[in-house]
Structures are given as C-alpha cells and as structure tokens.
Amino acid sequence: MTKNAEMIMNIINASYDHLTAEQIYFQLKNETVKISMATVYNSLSYLCENGLVRKVPMDGFADRYDRVKRHDHLVCKRCGKLMDISLRDMTASLQKEVKVPILSYDLKISCICDECSKEERRN
C-alpha cells in the first residue's frame, strides 16, 4: 500500500462524517500533504477494491467513503446527509429469500433528516 493510500485510509477510519473524495483531498492539503485529486481517486479505488474502505454511492450527490465495519445508513433525500444506523445483521434472513450465496449487502434507508424536517415546517 502506498503512503498516500494509507493516509487516506486513516482519514476515513478516523471520521464519522462519510467524506467525499474532495473533502479527503482538502483535508490532506490542509495537512500540507502534496497530493493530486487523481491520486486521491486512484488511492480510493485501490482501497475499495481491496476491501479496506467502503464506497457509499449516493444518488444525486457525490459518493462517500466510509469504514468497513458492518453498519447501515440513513440517507436524507433532501440534503444528502448520511447517518450511521446499526441494525441486526440480516444476511441469514436475506439468504433464505435468494438462491445464490450472499457475500455482503449495503442497506441505505431514505428519510428526511431533522434539519430538513424543521426547515420544511418553517416554510
């Protein structure tokens, strides 16, 4: 693993904010690390392909990157806020429904976050 990939993995594992590639890039730049955006994307690709970080695709928003520890997400449909939620592992019950082996799953539950709900009520 390259030094850059290791730094990026450490940033993701230390964060609970579900960072975008751009946010990771700016965090590295703020730490005076000389790195290009292409290197960030290449490192993220390597980390994801090797199961070291998790890519969370976001419809209509920039993809986010997260720790690989098993958990699911709530996604605000208005602002794109991504929040961790811990649900019981559903692999066994999902396996009963399908006839092929389940390797993993990524559950994203759509919601309207508290901030957007409050804003909606004000308007």
Please provide a written account of the structure:
By secondary structure, this protein is α+β, with helices and mostly antiparallel strands. It has 2 domains: 1-68, Winged helix-like DNA-binding domain superfamily/Winged helix DNA-binding domain (Arc Repressor Mutant, subunit A); 70-123, Dna Ligase, domain 1, CATH 3.30.1490.190. The chain has 5 helices and 5 strands; from the N terminus they run αααββββαβα. The strands form 2 sheets. A 3-stranded mixed beta sheet has the order 4-3-5, with no helix packed on it. A two-stranded antiparallel ribbon has the order 1-2. β3 (72-76) and β4 (82-85) form a beta hairpin. α1 packs across α3 and α2 crosses α3. The longest helix has 13 residues, at 37-49. It starts with a helix and ends with a helix.
Task: Kindly summarize this structure in a few lines.
This protein is α+β, with helices and mostly antiparallel strands and 123 residues long. Helices cover 41% and strands 15% of the residues.
Oligomer: single chain
Give the overall shape, derived from the CA principal axes.
flat
CATH superfamily of the largest domain: Winged helix-like DNA-binding domain superfamily/Winged helix DNA-binding domain
Helices and strands, in order, run as: HHHEEEEHEH
Give the rounded overall mean pLDDT.
92
CATH class of the largest domain: Mainly Alpha
Helix amount, in percent?
40-55%
* CATH architecture classification name of the largest domain: Orthogonal Bundle
Largest sheet: 3 strands, mixed
Number of strands: 5
Query: Number of helical runs?
Result: 5
**Regions with pLDDT < 50 over 5+ consecutive residues?**
none
Q: Please indicate the percent range of residues in DSSP E strands (runs of 2 or more).
A: 15-25%
**First-residue to last-residue Cα separation:** 50 Å
Alpha-carbon Rg, integer: 17 Å
The domain tally reads 2
Structural class: alpha+beta
Strand order of the largest sheet: 4-3-5
What name is given to the CATH topology of the largest domain? Arc Repressor Mutant, subunit A
